[in-house]
Structures are given as C-alpha cells and as structure tokens.
C-alpha cells in the first residue's frame, strides 16, 4: 500500500494549486491558438479545431471544479490529453509542419515545471510517442527521421534541464525550511514551530494539552564561569535530557537564550505534572561533564499550564505557564510550579 502511494505521488504535482492554475492557462492558450490558426487558414473555425477546443475546455472545467488538494495524480491527465489532442489535430488536418509539431513542446514544458519526476517521465514519453505517430504518418521516411530526432532531443533537453532546476530549488527551499524550524545549537524545534503547534492546539480545543516553560537557572553565571562554550554545552545537555524523556508526540523547543519549552498533547494534567517534575529531577541529578572531566551541577525552573476551557488564544496558555515559571523562580529555583 505504501509503495503504491509513493508511486502515485511520483506522478503528482509539486504544488497542486499552482499546477492546476497553469494547466488551465496552458489549455486555454492552446485552445485559442488552435482556433485562431484554423480560422485564419480556413476562413472559419474548422470542425477538428473546434472539437479539440471542446475537449480541452471540458478538461479545464473538471480541473477548476476540483479542489487543489484533491487534484493529486489526476493533474497528469492535463498534459496527456493535450498530447492526444495535438496528435489528433495534426492527423486530421494533415499538418506535420513546424506549426503542427511545436505544440508538442507545451505539455513537456508544463510537466517539467509542475510535476514530480514520474509525471515528467510519463509526459515526455507520451509526447515523444505522439511526435512519432505524427511524423511517421504524414512525412516521408527521411524527413520523418530528421524531425523526430530533433524534436526528441528537444523534449529530453527541456524536461531534463527544467526538472533538474526544480529539484535544486526544492532542496534549497527544504534547507531553508529546516533552518527556520530547527535550532542549530540544540537541535530542538524553534519558537516559530512551537507557536504554530500551540495555536493549533488552542484552535482545535485539545483538552489535554499542557505547556511547560523552562529556564536554565543562573545561566549567566555558567557563561561567566565556563565561557560561552560552556553555556552552549549546558543548553545542549539540558535539551538532550528533555528529549530523552519525551514522547514522539511531544514538541520540545528552544524559545531563545536559555528558555526552553515542552508542549504535551493528549496528556492529562496529572501526567503532565509528573513528567514535568521528571524533567526538573533529571537535570538536577545529571550534572554536565566538561571535556576536562569537571562536573557542573545544573538546575532548571519550570512552569506548567494546561489548556483551559476559557483560553481562546495561544498567548493565554503561554501567559499561564510563564506566570507559573516565575512562581518557581521566586520560590528558590530548581523546582516546578503549576498554574
């Protein structure tokens, strides 16, 4: 099942909304060009051009009526229908000139710009096959070989260059997305990711959602005593202790500086309080070991808040956890306080 799903995804669009829009634009341009060319050459709209325009228009309507997130692999039908339409028009009008063949480029360009690798390969193969049908049916063998060779090389170059460019762009975008989502020092999620997850929990009224805000106690003293590298090591050490005691569904983030946070979903308040206390105990009982073997005792203060029925914004949950955190600090640090 998973393999079949991956196979279908390889034929789908990189961006369904953009692919649908540009598919309709390409189909409309093809319709107008064919109708206009046929009208000029025949002093009226010929029946073949009119029928081809009708097929492309019907496909455009189907794509527009379908939500972008449900287009999926269906979007690959647009260039394939386009190829079949061009083949049919060329054969009916017996047009294998440059004017008739140039329309084969449109499906290849669109597929390379919008589809994943599987879709690009399928459309390029279909276009090459369509080109072969047209030239070998309408041209002399020697001319057919020449046209087919030139057009096939052109199709492969277009699909290869554009697909490669899209792959490089996707990798760069993914790298930027990771840089925006992952804290480079601790490997934890960033504040941006935490804000999004917390807002979603509030929006969907997740009753058993708890937020733990954490401060590393006397962090400035650690920096002054052991240098900034020692401070970085302390943050990394605490981050490791937290993630090692969290579930896969939990979100551990670095808010900034020495401030960390853990968002627990589907976790009853009593369970969340017990786990938050485990965070505090783990840091207190597991000192940081420096490269020279020295042990640095650490502690954290933590404030716990559970989403209440009256909370309407993520800021409400943050405010409750922050207030609890300051209670823990005023009580002497190294402890948990629950709102």
Main sheet record: 5 strands, mixed
Helix content: 55-70%
Low-confidence stretches: none
Query: Overall mean pLDDT score?
Result: 84
Outline? elongated
Helix and strand succession? HHHHHHHHHEHEEHEEEHE
Q: Using only CA atoms, what is the Rg?
A: 31 Å
**Strand-residue proportion:** 5-15%
| N-end to C-end Cα span | 46 Å
Strand count: 7
| Category by helix and strand content | alpha+beta
Q: Strand sequence of the main sheet, in spatial order? A: 2-3-1-6-7
Output the number of helix runs: 12
Summarize the structure.
The chain is an alpha+beta fold. The protein has helices at 2-9, 16-42, 47-65, 77-93, 98-101, 105-114, 117-138, 141-181, 191-203, 219-243, 269-285, 314-330, and strands at residues 210-216, 251-256, 259-264, 288-289, 295-296, 300-306, 336-338.
């Amino acid at each position: 099942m998973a393999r079949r799903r991956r196979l279908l995804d390889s034929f789908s669009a990189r961006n369904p909304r953009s692919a649908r829009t540009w598919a309709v634009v390409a189909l409309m341009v093809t319709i107008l060009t064919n109708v206009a060319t046929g009208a000029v050459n025949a002093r009226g709209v010929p029946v073949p051009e009119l029928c081809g325009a009708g097929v492309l228009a019907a496909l455009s309507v189907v794509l527009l009526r379908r939500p972008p997130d449900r287009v999926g692999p269906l979007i690959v039908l647009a260039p394939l229908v386009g190829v079949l339409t061009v083949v049919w028009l060329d054969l009916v009008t017996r047009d294998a000139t440059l004017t008739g063949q140039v329309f084969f480029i449109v499906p290849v360009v669109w597929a390379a710009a919008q589809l994943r690798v599987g879709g690009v390969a399928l459309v390029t193969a279909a276009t090459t096959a369509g080109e072969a049908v047209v030239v070998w049916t309408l041209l002399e063998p020697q001319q057919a070989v020449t046209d087919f060779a030139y057009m096939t090389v052109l199709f492969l170059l277009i699909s290869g260059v554009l697909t490669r460019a899209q792959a490089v762009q996707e990798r760069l975008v993914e790298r930027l997305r990771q840089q925006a989502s992952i804290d480079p020092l601790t490997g934890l999620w960033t504040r941006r990711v935490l804000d999004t997850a917390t807002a979603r929990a509030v929006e969907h009224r997740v009753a058993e959602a708890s937020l733990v805000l954490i401060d590393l106690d006397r962090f400035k003293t650690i920096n002054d005593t052991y240098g900034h590298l020692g401070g970085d090591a302390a943050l990394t050490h605490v981050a490791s202790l937290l993630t090692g005691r969290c579930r896969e569904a939990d979100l551990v983030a670095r808010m900034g500086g020495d401030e960390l946070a853990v968002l627990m979903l589907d976790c009853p308040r009593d369970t969340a309080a017990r786990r938050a206390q485990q965070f505090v105990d783990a840091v207190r009982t597991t000192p940081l070991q420096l490269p020279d073997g020295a042990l640095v005792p650490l502690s954290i203060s933590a404030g716990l808040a559970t989403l209440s029925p009256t909370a309407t914004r993520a800021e409400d949950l943050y405010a409750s956890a922050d207030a609890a955190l300051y209670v823990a600090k005023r009580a002497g640090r190294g402890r948990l306080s629950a709102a």
